[in-house]
């Protein structure tokens, strides 16, 4: 049965309603309304929400309320962060919202806000030890993570809107302004020595996502979402230089930067860069998930504390697979056969596996047919499209690109990273060739979808590979079909293939 | 409830198993196995199927049988055409197939085969008066259609495999060989004077589909399936010239031509060209549907004779919409509001509508959100992808491109045909601008998905347009959101917009 919940995030920069839909097998974000309310506009520390932003906020909440009623969503979870948390007239605002929409807004404490950012980070990446950074319009939260659990949590009033108003107001900013902000952040960071305890850094929030897109453009990488995109300090500082050259409202001229963030992205970038410097991090991994997903994970895994997805990478693949393709036995068997062959070749020392290569082949096998949801014709290309665009939490952009290309080449064509090459590393063409080759042969062995080829035993003698099929029935056609892929196999592994 | 049926097409060139899945709301082709059996190899008129092709056929049927058992498909409909129909040892072949697979193969008469081709043509295009052409490996069927009903049907032994063996065997062919084939076809056509009774020509079958792809490549049009692609005689003859330049097995070097058809595509092209000449047709419209869909339509519309889809264009849009997006009330209301505005502008003479323009806007409105099935982010781009790749029967490639681009620009970006421009005609950028503009405003009015804006009454005075909203509730935010799209509206219609 499909269930739905709406999380409403009343942030300092924007309000956003996000609908999550889930069953026992999958979950996904299915709808969204975004409104750049800027409730914190003109709000200085200890100040009050001003009438105009409050009215914008109320109208937006009315819209959200209409939406949930019209679409029949009963589980609605509105949460407010920094700006509303710290407003002197918070009670007045909450009462007005209640009166006009019936919504009971939950104002998150600093700790709660940090916790949701942390949940978003650890449930959408493989972050096990390091720091989760969550920057919004009003505040920034850092969580020290050890063995996937939070050990330290802090929130600072270092949000992008707030820092813009305080350090980088007006049309043009100078290096001096940026330096002042940097110094401010560094002072704050000095109070959190656990920042320097190493590990990886994962970034959450709209500022991080937008910077990730900007960095991809800088690097000439085709953008397909920001999940797993790596932002190096070097790239971030180049981006800061480019942003500084332009007046604030024009900063969306920098490729990838959104118009709605043009005036606050510089402050966000500088805060993040200063945090990276303070913590000694060379790079930050962006994730698509944010506070809203954090709130949702609590719903999805109700009763678990903390609500952690056991294996993020595996779950991401199974989640996507379940959304599109119910033929689990077939895909599972293609995965088994592919890995059986790959393992034999790896064991025989035919190649040096790249880190995680085996996982990528498994993922590609599980997802190779999702594209049939678009159309049977060219479904290998549609699988690629769906994988790239739906994204795979727990995977880097490079890994997602490799999985997508392996799925693309599970039938037809000559494997190549093509336009995704800028996401790859040296040797990735070989990784792709190996994955595509075993996948293609496994797919041919499973043509009848009946798992009649129970095992594919690959026996290697110098220069040749004998693939011995174990089957309970005559499999002449499967054997011949597999043999048609011998050329691609030879190219990938440098051995001639015969099947019997 | 989802139902499934497998149609097995035992053609002279290839065998193909196609799975159709359907509910009360939609149907689609969900799976397929293709095997280039060439059962008719070496079979001359009145001859017998040879042992080797028969054994290939039996193994392929065994594979199909395994497949349907493994996937639990009980409704299996195997049909055989020309080669098996005419084989002296047909009974022997059928008995062997029955023994080895349990399949009861139905051998179609010439009339039945022609009828399925006709059903495919009229249920996947808007062909009302004209001719449906269905060319396979062994035979070619022509059906004269009047008011969507068949009035004449004939089958000739003019299939692509058969004509290759008889007129164009071997590695290289000359203009003289081609001329001999052409003369042969023309003689046959002389016996069907109803060919010259005018109307449109629609083409069915793998040869037609492959030629359509070839013609798209020639014209520099990005290919997204062949549904509705127009093959002019001029383009077809250019393609024939290019094919003639190459040896038979190398003809897949002509862009778009499939390797599996390299040796028989020239004969198919010449037969079609000669038929076009004989019938006085300047162009042929390709359709994705074929004999297999014809058989399926009989299943889908059981009890109706002939099984005709009442409105092919409308059904195609609703079929695609139902597969992806259940929020019918929202999309329907966006369609209503869009067309209300468009009608007012058309009535006021603000532009000259292109033929069918109103239908395109309706289709784009109904399909604008299908992309959320891929991912909410960039769902407008995903809608475009799904529309282009799933295809829309009853629409030309140009119309499908326009609908896809309107859906793409229902939010964000500046409307443009972009890389699809080669599919368009002069003025299509304006059609797109108009469609995107009304769609975008309607979408904003429907932000809350609650149909609270009941009507959008557009009142035109020289140079300005007042959009007066009828609503049962406060719609300030919807109004403001709509006003944000004023610029695109002005660009499309040349009038300034205000909303109240």
Q: What report would you give on this structure?
A:
2 copies of one chain form a homodimer. Chain A has 500 residues and is an alpha/beta fold. In chain A, 45% of the residues lie in helices and 17% in strands. The first copy, chain A, is built from 18 helices and 14 strands. In chain A, strands 8-7-6-9-11-10 form a 6-stranded mixed β-sheet, sandwiched between helices. In chain A, helix 12 (328-347) crosses helix 16. The radius of gyration of chain A is 25 Å and the shape is elongated. Chain A starts with a strand and ends with a strand. At the A-B interface, strand 3, helix 1, helix 14 and helix 17 of A face strand 3, helix 1, helix 14 and helix 17 of B.
Give a nutshell description of this structure:
The structure is a homodimer of 500-residue chains. Chain A is α/β, with parallel strands linked by helices.
Descriptive tags:
homodimer; 500 residues; alpha/beta; six-stranded mixed beta sheet; five-stranded mixed beta sheet; elongated
Strand order within the widest beta sheet of chain A: 8-7-6-9-11-10
Q: What oligomeric state is this?
A: homodimer
- Morphology call of chain A: elongated
Report the portion of residues of chain A in β strands.
15-25%
Mean pLDDT of chain A: 95
